[in-house]
């Protein structure tokens, strides 16, 4: 992150008004600090969950957050609010094959200032009411007993419906492989972050290795494809054949980045894994100019 101490000097607030802790604080002292504060703020552009605001609410202190990641379900349960949620002014997807899904939801300075003024202008009683409701919300939805039970129910449910890794109940792999009487199949592997390759030497692995080798020879000899199925992040989709199908897991944000939408429009079909991922594409709309036309 940025050098906070340098920013304090640049803005003329390195006079004791702002304190920075560089040491690990014991839990009992941390709870006292939350109780001393009027509110806790987390306006990260990207946040997986945000334990700081969860701790704050558990101590009865309301929060101001960017409506991104897990912060959204902390500040509200859909009916009650336990602080102030700031809707992002812009949303984008960044990343690479090493870390493919990083989303940035940035709030505007004006919206942040408005949230600060709103919290400042509340009475002590109003802030305490938000904090009290927030503490109940945390105790109800994030206690260890509920977490343990939900986790066990989730894993047991998956194993019951789909089998364990050993049994793979209901799992049927490589259906296209079984129709080599209809298709000539070629495979181009890609690097996917730190994901490992199949380590076991079995018939499936031998089949994959043979197809990858055949594909390399076919491409070098000038071969062309009738159809391509590209399973990778959308900004890497290309028109490789007369018919192109893009397959992606989707995103954790609500709309896709412009480059994803542009690439999706190049595809003949796009396959996603959920309705949420689908809506990320269908609700996205951008104005732009094609520099080449």
Give a structural overview.
This protein is α/β, with parallel strands linked by helices and 293 residues long. The protein has helices at 4-10, 27-36, 51-58, 71-75, 109-120, 124-141, 144-162, 203-220, 258-266, 275-282, and strands at residues 40-42, 63-66, 83-86, 90-94, 102-106, 227-231, 243-247, 269-271. The strands form 3 sheets. A 3-stranded parallel beta sheet has the order 1-2-3, with helices on both faces. The chain has a 3-stranded parallel beta sheet with strand order 6-7-8, with no helix packed on it. Helix 3 crosses helix 6. The two termini are 40 Å apart. 18% of the residues are buried.
Quick tags:
10 helices; alpha/beta; single chain; three-stranded parallel beta sheet
Tally of DSSP helical segments:
10
Strand content: 5-15%
Question: Span from first to last CA?
Answer: 40 Å
How would you describe the oligomerization state of the chains in this entry? single chain
Strand tally is: 8
- For the largest sheet, list the strands in their spatial order: 1-2-3
Which ranges are low-confidence, i.e. pLDDT below 50, for 5 or more consecutive residues?
none
Major pleated sheet: 3 strands, parallel
Radius of gyration: 25 Å
Classify the helix fraction into a percent range. 25-40%
Q: What's the helix-strand series?
A: HHEHEHEEEHHHHEEHEH
In one word, what is the shape?
elongated
Mean pLDDT: 85
Structural class: alpha/beta
Task: Indicate the topology.
Elements lengths: L3 H7 L16 H10 L3 E3 L8 H8 L4 E4 L4 H5 L7 E4 L3 E5 L7 E5 L2 H12 L3 H18 L2 H19 L40 H18 L6 E5 L11 E5 L10 H9 L2 E3 L3 H8 L11
Parallel strand pairs: 1-2, 2-3, 6-7, 7-8
Antiparallel strand pairs: 4-5
């Amino acid at each position: 992150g940025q050098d906070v101490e340098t920013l304090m000097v640049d803005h003329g607030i390195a006079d004791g008004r702002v304190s920075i802790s560089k040491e690990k604080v014991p839990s009992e002292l941390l709870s006292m600090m939350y109780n001393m504060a009027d509110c806790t703020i987390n306006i990260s552009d990207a946040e997986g969950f945000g334990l700081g605001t969860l701790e704050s609410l558990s101590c009865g202190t309301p929060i101001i957050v960017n409506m991104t990641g897990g912060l959204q379900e902390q500040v509200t349960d859909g009916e009650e609010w336990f602080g102030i949620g700031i809707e992002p002014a812009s949303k984008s997807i960044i990343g690479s094959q090493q870390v493919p899904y990083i989303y940035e939801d940035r709030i505007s300075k004006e919206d942040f200032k408005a949230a600060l003024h709103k919290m400042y202008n509340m009475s002590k009683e109003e802030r305490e009411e938000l904090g009290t409701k927030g503490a109940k919300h945390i105790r109800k939805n994030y206690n260890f007993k509920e977490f343990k039970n939900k986790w066990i129910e989730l894993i047991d449910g998956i194993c019951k419906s789909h089998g364990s890794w050993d049994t793979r109940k209901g799992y049927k792999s490589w259906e296209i492989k079984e129709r080599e009487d209809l298709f000539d199949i070629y495979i181009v592997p890609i690097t996917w972050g730190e994901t490992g390759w199949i380590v076991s030497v079995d018939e499936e692995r031998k089949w994959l290795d043979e197809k990858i080798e055949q594909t390399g020879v076919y491409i070098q000899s000038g071969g062309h494809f009738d159809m391509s199925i590209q399973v990778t992040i959308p900004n890497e989709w290309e028109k490789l054949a007369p018919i192109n199908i893009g397959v992606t897991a989707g995103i954790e944000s609500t709309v896709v980045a412009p480059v994803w939408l542009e690439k999706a429009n190049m595809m003949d079909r796009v396959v996603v894994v959920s309705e949420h991922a689908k809506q990320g594409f269908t609700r996205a709309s951008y104005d732009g100019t094609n520099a080449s036309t």
